[in-house]
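Weekly structure sync, notes
Attendees: PL (lead), two postdocs, one rotation student
Agenda item 3: pending single-chain targets
PL asked that the sequence for the first pending target be pasted directly into the notes so everyone works from the same version. It is reproduced below exactly as submitted, 229 residues in total.
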Amino acid sequence: MAGNYNGSGGNRQPAAAVVHAAWFTPARLLFLFCLMSMLIYVDRGVISSAAVSGAPSTPDVAGSGLQGDFNIGYYKYGLLQASFMIGLLMGCPVFSSLAKTANPFKLIGAGLACWTLATLGCGLAPGYYPLFACRMLVGVGEASFCALAAPFIDDFAPPQRKALWLALFYLCIPLGVASGFIYGGVVGGSLGWRWAFLLESGAMLPIVVFCLSSPPIPMRGVSGVTCGG
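Predicted structure, written out during the meeting:
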């Protein structure tokens, strides 16, 4: 379905999409996406933090962290990072394609629901291979956000502030990872590495419920978008 356009002649631009969610303003959407990004990238730091990753067992010293609990070495621990990237790389094109027929905001909510369940599974994993599968699903869930959040900001940011808004959004990546190192060290060192994943899963749950229960937020350039005249 073709959208309406503003302007005339050869310089016509798509009109802004009509949003029916009562909570919505572009600034609030940016805040929501920055909050999502911080939590997502905290997880990236957590899995790499010393208290969570731990150290493998040796003949003389008992292991610590998830490496000690599952009796794995650095090689298998490194594969956990690879499993996450496999899920992320598989998920991004899938969610990008689905956005042509399904509402992208709802897809982000669905992907983060997968992320929430997967991080919960990381905390409850009874062994290495279930943890490996959960880390892959974390990547799949994160893919929805990676593929679709930035285009939303590009759509709704004021033109004169678009670069600033995108800079703030991407600043959450290093801030989140750095916070994850600290958070993983504090929680993993005091409560155990499983709690680091369990608590981050609980922190994301209200955001998932909000996204899935909110009216859909349309994105220009994909089907089903209603544009203002």
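Discussion points:
- The first helix runs from residue 26 to 48.
- The longest strand covers residues 5-6.
Action: rotation student to compare against the earlier draft before next sync.
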